Amino acid sequence: MTISDVAGVTVGHCTLAQGAIQTGVTVIRPHGGDVYRDKVPAAACVINGFGKSVGLVQLDELGVLETPIALTNTFGVGTVANAQIRAAIAANPRIGREEPSVNPLVFECNDGYLNDMQALAIDEAHYASALDACSAHFARGAVGAGRGMSCFELKGGIGSASRIARIGEQSFTTGALVLANFGKLHQLVIEGEAVGRRLQASTHATPEQGSIIMLIATDAPLDSRQLRRVAMRAAAGLARTGSVYGHGSGDIALAFTTAYTARHDADFIALPPLINDARLDPLFQAAAESVEHAILDALHSAETVAGRDGHRRLSLNDALKARS
């Protein structure tokens, strides 16, 4: 079960894994067309704002995506945003001239423990490669933007999950994809069990300095205001894994729907019947559960990785084996 269970959503990675360079780019496409011309309703929720994303201000104002969503490391945000702009211009040469500019959307986490971010290894070709690789079938774990990420002081990265929400006589799919790079080991909770305390009896005095990006896709007909309400429920799924949204953690959630698009050059936008707010609870539950299990998927899917200056992150599976 992944975010691509929502029909039309695809994911692609470009992974850099050599010595001190352990990083990459991940791209999420909400549909197979031109997102600039057929914009997707979306909204974001900033749970803790220790982050360096691009594009959130306009997203908050207009409530639509204009490009695919890109994930990378902190120092790669500007480069990837430029790559998104170039790709949009290549498909729409009137952008920034006869037509308005485009709003790139890039999220980041700091992979500096395993990856030498000062090397500025991400270039625009890596975004293009991840975009070209987009598919309904994609790898999870230590791949793409998740290559150098840590989660609960173990190996983190890309995880995904999905749920079905039933409202009245209709069923809707809700899927999540996370870039998991947060948490202290003693905090880790899996299905209600304090697994982290089994792996580490004492707590560290060092503060949390991670982040998590949580993306939620649904085919339920919602407007951007309702999508922000769905995005907020990502925090419930995050908390179930033991996170307390530490001071140095950038925790951001975004939700979008594939139920309809807003045509760029249309005078009017035709909306399907939207779900009554009073009937949204099944979607809230699906969002929380899919985020929680996407985080666990990232932990279970990742392998042990060694990187910069001999730093190493054990996978959850290897940590549990070592403990037994």
From TrEMBL:
Belongs to the peptidase S58 family. It comes from Caballeronia cordobensis. It holds the Pfam family Peptidase_S58. One of its GO terms (molecular function) is aminopeptidase activity. This is Aminopeptidase. Keywords: Aminopeptidase, Hydrolase, Protease. Gene3D superfamilies: L-amino peptidase D-ALA esterase/amidase.
